[in-house]
Write a structure and sequence with these properties.
The complex is a heterodimer of chains A (163) and B (306). By secondary structure, chain A is mostly helical. Chain A is built from eight helices and no strands. The two termini of chain A are 39 Å apart. With 306 residues, chain B is mostly helical. Chain B folds into two domains: 114 residues, no CATH class; 164 residues, no CATH class. Chain B has a three-stranded antiparallel sheet with strand order 2-1-3, with helices on both faces. A three-stranded antiparallel sheet of chain B has the order 4-5-6, with no helix packed on it. In chain B, strand 1 and strand 2 form a beta hairpin. Classes of the chains: A mainly alpha (163), B mainly alpha (306).
């Protein structure tokens, strides 16, 4: 696949996978093809590929905390505060985790060790969770006696709680 | 269709290059004079060195935000992504550009996520359901995180502080020396040569005050003498957890993994500390090392050169 990219004359403006590479993935063929037709029209429709980073993580959930738009907004802000701005990768990974991705699949895509992701996510949920629960208590969404966060000991439980 | 591991590796390399290429296209479409040959050289650099793999293979380095300082024709330096430090290198090395590797890797993650989802490149999520949603494991991780925070051990934060003071020291020297600044190259290291300056001692004092003294304060709490005084250091924590929870394989995996990182980080801190002490012990030291200019020196030892 890399050889295809190396031989491609369109590298100057290349920003996403082309039909040629996607075909190779589908065929499982890693061998180079010396007679590539780079001008062939794309068969795939790339227009539906969304910019993940711009997505609002708050829109896909409806769950146990019965979080409304205010709480969702607060959650987004809490995540923003809990992850330093220079940790761009981590923020994207955590948002992906909150959507639907497992820690294992995130580890595969990032070439990371699962233990590292577990450790980082646990740190985030500790910071985000305590702030979120305080805010929910303050707004009367949960009673002050309830301490839901005590039960949230893992990233997966956090995800279920806010789902 | 789930793809082969090698294909996934190649895909990650291509996608990372594309994200860096996006940054270059933005620069080129701005006012940066970047030729197509230079863009090709960047692609070659990414592919020849398996840049994605190189940047992510070491879990100790992976959390550090990185940048690529490049002239797109032979000089490529992976370093920390700190604005002050990057500006220093841009000024000193001339005709170089700084690409944001942290952003490129984040964008690559999003792109990979989308490709994997859209083209079903990985096994379905149900087949990879994590079996480690384990209260005991995350309780240990929480304690570990707390200790790391209490001891202010997080490597990215430490390094950002250190490179911040290194950059401040270099800027102070550049301001003082002005146009007469002479750079020296020796064994892959680039340095500011103070020997020819009439006020070389004052300049060396600036470096000591602005960098060495402040760097020493930044790592002081992690040096051997201070660690020995702590009630509960991380080594004791690892031992204790292993003796109490040794039957839980997930906890053992976690502890083994973190213990190795802890030892490596401690060795790096000790080595940096030793280099600072050596600097203090060296009389008439009129050369200020900026950094190692080999492409991946930072990944082997991310601490600043003294």
């Amino acid at each position: 696949m890399r050889k295809t990219c190396e031989q491609c004359p369109k590298y100057e403006n290349c920003k996403e996978l082309c039909e040629e590479i996607l075909n190779q993935i589908e065929k499982g063929d890693e061998k180079s093809n010396d007679s590539l037709d780079f001008d062939s029209p794309y068969k795939r429709d790339f227009s539906s590929i969304e910019n993940f980073s711009d997505k609002d993580v708050s829109n896909n959930h409806s769950g146990s905390l019965n979080m409304g738009s205010w709480e969702r907004k607060f959650l987004d802000e809490a995540i923003g505060f809990s992850i330093p701005s220079y940790k761009k990768k981590l923020k994207r990974q955590f948002n992906a985790f909150l959507k639907c991705n497992s820690i294992t699949s995130i580890a595969i895509r990032t070439n990371a060790k699962k233990q590292d992701i577990q450790q980082k996510f646990q740190l985030i949920i500790k910071r985000v969770g305590s702030n979120l629960i305080k805010a929910l208590k303050k707004s009367g969404k949960i009673s002050s006696q309830e301490d839901l966060f005590d039960a949230v000991t893992t990233p997966y439980k956090f995800k279920r709680l806010i789902a | 269709m789930p793809i082969e591991s090698n294909t996934l590796k190649e895909l990650r390399e291509i996608v990372l290059w594309q994200q860096l290429n996006k940054q270059v296209i933005r620069m080129r479409d701005g006012d940066a004079a970047i030729t197509s040959a230079q863009q090709k050289a960047l692609q070659q650099f990414c592919f020849d060195f398996n840049l994605f793999h190189k940047l992510t293979e070491d879990p100790l380095i992976e959390p550090i935000p990185l940048a690529l300082v490049t002239n797109f024709s032979g000089r490529n330096i992976v370093t920390i992504n700190d604005g002050r430090w990057a500006r220093c290198l841009e000024t000193l090395l001339k005709d170089v550009f700084v690409l944001d590797l942290e952003l490129a890797l984040a964008d690559a993650f999003d792109a990979m996520t989308e490709y994997c989802r859209k083209y079903e490149l990985l096994e379905p999520a149900s087949a990879r359901a994590d079996m480690d949603d384990d209260d005991a494991l995350y309780s240990v991780i929480s304690q570990y995180n707390e200790l790391m925070e209490t001891q202010r051990r997080q490597l990215p934060e430490l390094l950002l502080d250190l490179y911040g003071v290194k950059a401040a020291a270099i800027v102070a020297l550049m301001d003082r020396i002005g146009a007469n600044l002479t750079l020296g190259y020796d064994k892959g290291l680039i340095s500011i040569d103070l020997h020819q300056s009439s006020d070389k001692q004052q300049l060396a004092d600036i470096y000591r005050r602005e960098f060495c003294d402040r760097a020493l304060r930044i790592i002081d709490h992690l040096t051997a003498a201070h660690i020995a005084l702590k009630d509960m250091d991380l080594t004791s924590f690892f031992d204790e957890v292993e003796s109490l929870r040794g039957s839980n394989p997930m906890i053992v995996d976690f502890i083994t993994h973190e213990r190795e990182l802890f030892y490596r980080q401690s060795a790096m801190i000790n080595s940096f500390h030793k280099a600072l002490l050596t600097w203090y012990g060296t009389k008439k030291n009129y050369s200020v090392t900026i950094c190692d200019v080999s492409p991946f020196a930072f990944l082997k030892n991310p601490f600043p050169e003294v």
